Amino acid sequence: MPGTIEQKLEDLGISLPNSPAPSANYIPFVITGSLVFISGQISIEKGLLIEGKIGKELNVDTGKRAAKACALNLISHLKNACAGDLNRVIRVVKLGGFVNATSDFTAAPQVINGASDVFVEIFGETGRHARFAVSVASLPSGAAVEIDGIFEIA
Fold first, then answer.
1. Which residues pair with 29 in a beta bridge?
2. Domains and their CATH numbers in the chain
3. Which segments in the chain show pLDDT lower than 50?
């Protein structure tokens, strides 16, 4: 029924950010068949970069907040891919999560839960997905987290 996801966003007090522009030579998303592949989104929240290394300057809770910011940026692009209608989302298929962390940091899955939780909160069972979560030595612009996604749409 029309407006369902928009209503859910409103009920949750979530307003989607403007879709961040690509920072290099790529496009934000590609649609092939019924799949949307969205390029990696870094942890930009309210126009400001959440940057730093988790396990050093940042803790897991800040990492989860950074992952949530990535998720909202992904959803903003997904909305564009769906011509403004998020009710077209059939399935959140897969997320790929990269965590800028110290070499001994082992809680990347807990950090990426910050994004996974958002997708389930907004899309319900449709939001449950496959994923990976890995720690890396660095990310673009020093971002704390970067996440990409694959989605099925009608």
1. 38
2. 4-9+29-94+102-153 (3.30.1330.40)
3. 1
